[in-house]
Amino acid sequence: MTGWSRRQALGLAVAGLPLSAQAATETWPSRPIRMIIPFPPGGTTDLMGRLLAERLSARLGQPVVVENRGGAGGNIGADAVAKSPPDGYTLVMCSIGTAAINYAAYGADMPYKPQDLAAIGLAVRVPNLVLASRDSGITDFAGLLAAARRSPGRLNYGTSGIGGSPHACMELLKVRAGIDITHVPFRGSGPMLTELVAGRIQTAMDNIPSALNFVRDGQIRALAVTSRERVPLLRDVPTLVEAGIADFDATAWFGLQAPAATPAPVILRLGAAVDEVVSSEEWARQIGAFAAQPPGLTARGGSSPEAFADFIAAEITRWAEVARAGNISVR
């Protein structure tokens, strides 16, 4: 659907609302809003979601209450929102996994479809890190490649779960580097990082915000970053391109979605509130402390429901190709 036709559809949706629905949207929000985080506490989705919830509460005049509901690569929480009443009071802090990669990874087992969730706004983009345990003996990316090539399949890597951007990024990296490393999925970044620090897994891929303090404290090693450019907070960590993987550029992202039939006026108001938050200097400064970046989907550097919907559609196509190349599947 083109941008113009989507705007027309929103307008028609408003005009076609029954009087009772119009009255309800005019008073929205009149009670607390629930934001489902489809992953356990401590991961990047949780960190970014709680920051966004706090700022949306101030702009919407009602508390935005966070509820963690993890499992199945984020699908359990996202599906709960897709099947919730479309009244604007239940939202999901989606990830690149729940909104794009999982459609390819889970295939026919996906409990919801792209059209079951409405885009509200992109909140943040986050590069990933290639990590190693201090007990692994791997001190740089060249060392990881050498270890993987000496013993194909014996080296392992942890992620926050099947189908997320860390899993997809590492599988893409395996294809591009010609190495075989065994995936060990966890139920979130927190449990995975605990095992990496303890040395019970050798390597990992994770979003920067959840791994940052462990790297700074010297508990784990950062070998490379998946973005095209180095991250200011980790200037000594090379990009994968610098480490010899040509044209590698992969960034995770997180945003807000609602049940698909949520009234257009509510989606537009939520979208405006998200845009106001994420295009502000305060937001850039706050997420910058986690090496994260603002969305940059609109001219002012923010987001909108329309721009985010187009972005998600493009990402679904892009990561379906990666999933095929990397054989990413939970079936």
Provide a quick synopsis of the model.
This protein has 331 residues and is α/β, with parallel strands linked by helices.
Identify the notable features of this structure and list them briefly.
Bug family tripartite tricarboxylate transporter substrate binding protein; signal; 2 domains; alpha/beta; D-Maltodextrin-Binding Protein, domain 2; disordered N terminus; about 325 residues
Q: Topology as H/E string?
A: HHEHEHEHEHEHEHEHEEHHH
Shape: globular
Question: What is the helix fraction of residues, given as a range?
Answer: 40-55%
Domains counted in the coordinates: how many? 2
| Coarse structural class | alpha/beta
Approximate strand percentage: 15-25%
**Number of strand segments:** 9
Average pLDDT confidence is: 90
> How large is the count of helical segments?
12
CATH topology of the largest domain: D-Maltodextrin-Binding Protein, domain 2
Q: Can you identify the CATH class of the largest domain?
A: Alpha Beta
Low-confidence stretches: 1-5, 7-16
CATH superfamily of the largest domain: Bordetella uptake gene, domain 1
The second-level CATH architecture of the largest domain is 3-Layer(aba) Sandwich
Signal peptide: 1-23
Keywords: Signal
Family: Belongs to the UPF0065 (bug) family.
Protein name: Bug family tripartite tricarboxylate transporter substrate binding protein
